[in-house]
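User: Some background: our group keeps a shared notebook of sequences we're curious about, and every so often someone picks one and asks for a predicted structure to add to the entry. Today it's my turn. The entry only has the sequence so far, pasted here. Could you supply the structure so I can complete it?
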Amino acid sequence: MSASLRPTRIAIIGAGLGGLTCARILRRHGIASTVYDLEASPSVRGQGGTLDMHPESGQAALREAGLLEEFLALARPEGQQMRLVGRDGRVLFDAVPPEADAEAGNPEIDRGQLRGLLLSSLGPDTVRWGRKLARVEPLTAGVHRLHFADGTTTEADLVIGADGAWSNVRRQLSDATPVYTGVTFVEAGLDRTDTRHPALAALTGNGTMMALDDNRGIVAQRNSHGHIRAYVGMRTDEDWYQNAGVDLADDNAVREALLKEFAGWSLDLLGFITDTDTGYTNRPLYALPVPHTWPHTPGLTLLGDAAHLMSPFSGMGANLAMLDGADLARALMGHIDVDHAVRAYENVLHPRSRQAAEGAAEGIESAFAPDSAVQALAHMTRTR
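Assistant: Of course. Here's the predicted structure to add to the notebook entry:
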């Protein structure tokens, strides 16, 4: 137990990167917490694509967690390469990171690898799998009873909502709900690309390839083990597939609909659509209103997407979630009273979240605009 914090029952809802970071740092300093996650096990589903860890946020949180060296051993500095391609397949911009130590810049890591690193750093009983939160019942003096879908309950002096975009904990603090950004990604995947899809692997490079034009885009990202995730993006109605009469379970129908949307684009780029090894996953992008704040409520708080869901065009989502987790843990370590600690954390969280979310909103608007190709090239050249 911390030398200052009074004994406190801490429940973290959600075993994502932010919640696990918070639990890990608390554990390092002798403060117990329990993480509850709705999934049956850590391997029940894939964990998504690659992430770039920023020195001032994600890497800082990992350093606080005592895991920076382990992260650097897994990270891919070469994954910072950023390439812009025209709809005709010509490379317009290519920024290759200089050869340097892995800690320089924003090295990439697969989300699943990073989550596994955090999970392995916790005690075997820290995460309770298969515990879907059904509701939060206020009791007295900041104490809440958590009701799970399996009929079990527990009580906590602090409930941390790290439960993502559709957070159940957030409902106790805010009426805000995520809204559709106007942009949908359709995800595809390519396996063993260097041997099975060499042309697409070469076009992607070692990092991220973006082709943006006229409210559409194709983004390809190199992951570990030769895998590439491709995101086919469109500014469109949320129910675009229904309007087009497309069954999302019918890969052929999805493929034909996407090819129609990207008519006139280079065959080189269309290969990210036609050559998928994993089928297609429809991913409409949502964001919380900006700013999103809530009145301080004893015994409850939020972090990560539950607090500030934003579009991926900020490049900040995972980094902020981990920084949130680190800041909350540090506040709890530095205060005798849990309520004072949460107030201090939220005073830092709210302005930082607003700034990042505003940047993310601007980013997605410029990336999916009639002149997105021109804007993207100007931005990359300016920030090189």
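Suggested note for the entry: DSSP finds 13 helices and 17 strands in the chain. The two ends are 46 Å apart (CA to CA).
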